Amino acid sequence: MAPRERGAKVLAPLLLLLALLGSPGAGLEVQHKFLSPTLTNNFALDGLGSKIYLAAVNRLYQLSGPNLTLEVEEQVGPVPDNPLCHAPQLPQASCEHPKVLTNNYNKILQPDPEQGIVVVCGSIYQGFCQLRSMANISAVAVSFPPGGAGAGAGGGGDPVTVFPSMLNIAANHPNASTVGLVLRPAGPAGGGRPDTRLLVGATYTGFGSPFFPRNQSLEDHRFENTPEIAIRALNARGDLAKLFTFDLNPSDDNIFKIKQGAKARHKLSFVRAFLHPAPPPRGAAAAAAYAYLALNSEANAGDKESHSHSLLARICLAEPGRNASAGETKKLTESYIQVGLQCGAGGGDGFTRLVSVFPATAALQLGPPAAPPQELLFGVFERAAPPGARQHSALCAFRFADIERRIRQARHSCFVEPDAGLVTVLDSVVQGTGPACEKRNIQ
């Protein structure tokens, strides 16, 4: 699933806004604060700002906004674990490898207000996820697997057939990246509306990666069960036998996975998953939107001359009203397309590794005359530096109009004038209809 970087054109920034060199400046006054005794990993809001969810190593917190008063605290680690063992939630799972107390680093913290749940995924148990209550994050809202070992206290139910691919969701190493995004269907509930889904991007941590235990073991539960990019079922009120599965049929059309022989040469590091345009209020009819994945790719990751390439991938979501009665959604393998991002000058002088992104509506010219606001993507990038050298970074802005134009050009190059340097779809893919963009119905 390695992107074709060689010769690929990148999207230049609209404006290099600021070089972030660590210069001192006046800080804002802190109004309220909450201190966690362990490293914090993620935080999220309930949508109204009345509750704040904070995930730290081995801890989950629920705070009241805006004064950050602690409402609920839940311990989620450390637990006995071994990365060579299946998750204990897998029925009849056994493991001959010794387990040690392992810290639980939060990887995904995604509220879904419509279902009243928070998706909480950690690094333990091969990246196992739980569905917790938004009203009380210490409570498991939906036991999964239902009736199985370690299911928790929320609901029970008859046992279902559970596969490792339903449990291995997030990256199982503290330093391996994972991003998640709840994909809510458009329109009001009912009427055959498609189910809620979960988009996940996770760095590969199995055999051949720098995260795999160095004990010469060939037991790798990650390759078969944890694709780098996947869309999973997230209907907590429906058939739990489908929960966290790759919900399209055939499932191969909803996952991207690098071939085993190419994994050691290609490392994907995910920065953020987000929707654009922003979703409308709950219950409103939504405009056709896209899910974006911001990531870095290190081609030939094992070589000394390896450099990161920043990428922005777009995934087309289901259009409102189109085949909604049949629950039909866009296939990941049909809609995925990506462009390169670079901050600064071309050549080797640019900032090529993406650190953070944020979509926003803003006017770049303050006037006079004042410029109209635009849909922009802000990104913080860093430049490769030798060990011990001062790390430089920069902030760049990209117009979404330019991003969409580049993607249209890429789509045109697929069907009319093939240009491998312009379009970048995922190569070395195990699943799907093949890596050639000419064979994909790219949306």
Would you write up a description of this structure?
The protein has 443 residues and is mainly beta. It has one domain (10-20, 40-439): Methylamine Dehydrogenase, Chain H, CATH 2.130.10. Helices cover 6% and strands 32% of the residues. It contains four helices and 23 strands. It has helices at 222-225, 260-263, 332-335, 400-415, and strands at 10-11, 15-20, 40-45, 51-56, 59-64, 69-75, 79-81, 100-102, 106-112, 117-122, 129-133, 140-142, 178-183, 197-202, 229-233, 255-256, 266-276, 290-299, 308-316, 337-341, 353-362, 374-382, 393-399. The chain has a five-stranded mixed beta sheet. This is Sema domain-containing protein.
CATH architectural grouping: 7 Propeller
CATH topology-level name = Methylamine Dehydrogenase, Chain H
What's the β-strand tally? 23
Main β-sheet, spatial strand arrangement: 1-20-19-18-17
Helix fraction by DSSP (H/I, runs of at least 4): under 10%
Q: List the total number of helices.
A: 4
Please give the alpha-carbon distance between the first and last residues: 19 Å
Look at the structure and give the CATH class.
Answer: Mainly Beta
Query: Could you spell the SSE succession in H and E letters?
Result: EEEEEEEEEEEEEEHEEHEEEHEEEEH
Q: Approximately how much beta-strand content do the residues carry?
A: 25-35%
CATH superfamily: YVTN repeat-like/Quinoprotein amine dehydrogenase
**Broad shape:** globular
The structural class is: mainly beta
Low-confidence stretches: 1-8, 149-155, 323-328, 420-443
Main sheet attributes: strand count, strand direction, barrel closure? 5 strands, mixed
Rounded Rg = 22 Å
Q: Average pLDDT value?
A: 79
Total domain units: 1
Keywords: Glycoprotein, Signal
InterPro entries: Plexin, Semap_dom, Semap_dom_sf, WD40/YVTN_repeat-like_dom_sf
Organism: Mauremys mutica (yellowpond turtle)
GO biological process, one term: positive regulation of axonogenesis
